[in-house]
Amino acid sequence: MELDRRTLLQAAGALAMAPALLRLGLADALAQGAAAPASPAAGPQQAPGFYRFRLGSRLVTMVHDGHGRRPNPTQGFVRNAEPAAVEAALREAFLPTTHLDIPYTVTVLETPDGLVLFDTGTGGQLGATAGNIPANMRAAGLDPARVTLIVLTHFHADHITGLTDAEGKPAFPNAEVALPKAEHDYWMDEGQASRAPEAMKGAFANVRKRLEPYKARIRPIDGAGEVVAGVQAVPSFGHTPGHTSYLLADGNDQAMLLGDVTNRPELNLRNPGWHLVFDMDAQMAETTRRRMFDRVATDRIRCIGYHFPFPANGYVAKEAQGYRFVPAGWSSTV
């Protein structure tokens, strides 16, 4: 996917209100929604953020990292919709119009060979309202040392910064990293980095910083195909140059791990033609959304969304206008 300078500058515009995030660049702004959240006041806390369900005979655990906050989501969050239309969509979904909290949830698949982790969260390095993966994994009885494979959807900072701790050491010391080759080729290309707008240069540097400790354990995923038994790569380019989703399957049971095919489903499902500021190739991202939504709706496949409301899984139903998210029911048994 060839990104022109205008597209990059539009995406980099997400940084206009986020000088504190310039040290990592655009990807952080995307992760945080353009402003670093303040430290939460002391007070009541929620229960540990994990939820389990069965996929065939396999156990899947959703692990919540926290959220980033986007201020003024009616202004500039959707590039090709009027503020009044965005406000109406937020109100229809009973969401505030003054800000939008964007959840982050990773997925852990238990296999006979160890744990497979899909994306890694923020590593506690992108604001005070996120960074809960280590604590919530421990609460779920999941030892990070048991993670033998990390599978990445793409390289935005809210998905990869958790590869390392604050000191730059691997957060998952025994893991290989499987990643989309097209994504790796783009972000590791010196020419792309040198031509990028200044606001994006930190994003390129962040990719190198997070992957460096794993450089001897990187496994490229070239297009579609099996990653490990029961996990198929599904290219879903547009959000980023090599963005990839994954179809998890065991027997007749399937789940599509969408990654960032969509952000908050309350916006992009009902309006798949809306172009969010996060998407690096907005038109390709729209084409991908429509294709993926149609597939999972037609085949009634459970969906896992990184930015879906926790526990971040459910179904997509086709409607006269767009689609609708149907959360999977909470079960007290596994």
Automatic annotation (TrEMBL):
It comes from the Bacteria. Pfam families: Lactamase_B. Gene3D superfamilies: Ribonuclease Z/Hydroxyacylglutathione hydrolase-like. Keywords: Hydrolase, Metal-binding, Zinc. Residues 103-307 form the Metallo-beta-lactamase domain. GO terms for molecular function: hydrolase activity; metal ion binding. InterPro entries: MBL_superfamily_lactonases, Metallo-B-lactamas, RibonucZ/Hydroxyglut_hydro, TAT_signal. Belongs to the metallo-beta-lactamase superfamily. This is MBL fold metallo-hydrolase. It comes from Teichococcus rhizosphaerae. The lineage of its organism: Bacteria, Pseudomonadati, Pseudomonadota, Alphaproteobacteria, Acetobacterales.
